[in-house]
Amino acid sequence: MQIHRSLHDYHLAEFWKWAMATAIGMIMGLLAFLTDLGIETMNDVKYTTTESRMQRGGSTCVIVFVCVWWGGKGMMGGHAALVVMI
């Protein structure tokens, strides 16, 4: 039974520790970028729709409320709401 790790095992463990940290950071950065892009896109659509309604002189609008819920516990569970003016 080997008690101490060899130098090769130590270097391999360090490599995978840094590789996983880098991969997690890159994935989280990509998800944050896509989330920000989605929010900006929804805001642009909302602004454009509202502006076009106001320019046409429409004083009435319909507000659609969409609630999305997904089950689970911890970070994977939650809800989101979207209000759209048509």
Keywords:
57% helix, single chain, rod-shaped, alpha+beta, 2 strands, 86 residues
Describe this structure in words.
The chain has 86 residues and is of the alpha+beta class. It has one domain. Helix content is 57%, strand content 19%. The chain has one helix and two strands, in the order αββ. Strands 1-2 form a two-stranded antiparallel sheet. A hairpin with a 7-residue loop joins strand 1 and strand 2. It is rod-shaped, with a radius of gyration of 24 Å. The termini are far apart.
Radius of gyration: 24 Å
Order of helices and strands: HEE
Task: Tell me the strand percentage band.
Answer: 15-25%
The count of domains is 1
State the helical fraction. 55-70%
Q: Gap between N and C termini, in Å?
A: 71 Å
Number of separate strands = 2
Largest sheet: 2 strands, antiparallel
Structural class label: alpha+beta
Are there runs of 5+ residues with pLDDT below 50, and where?
none
Assign an overall shape. Answer: rod-shaped
Helical stretch tally: 1
Write a brief structural summary.
By secondary structure, the protein is an alpha+beta fold.
Present the secondary structure layout:
Layout lengths: L6 H49 L7 E8 L7 E8 L1
Antiparallel strand pairs: 1-2
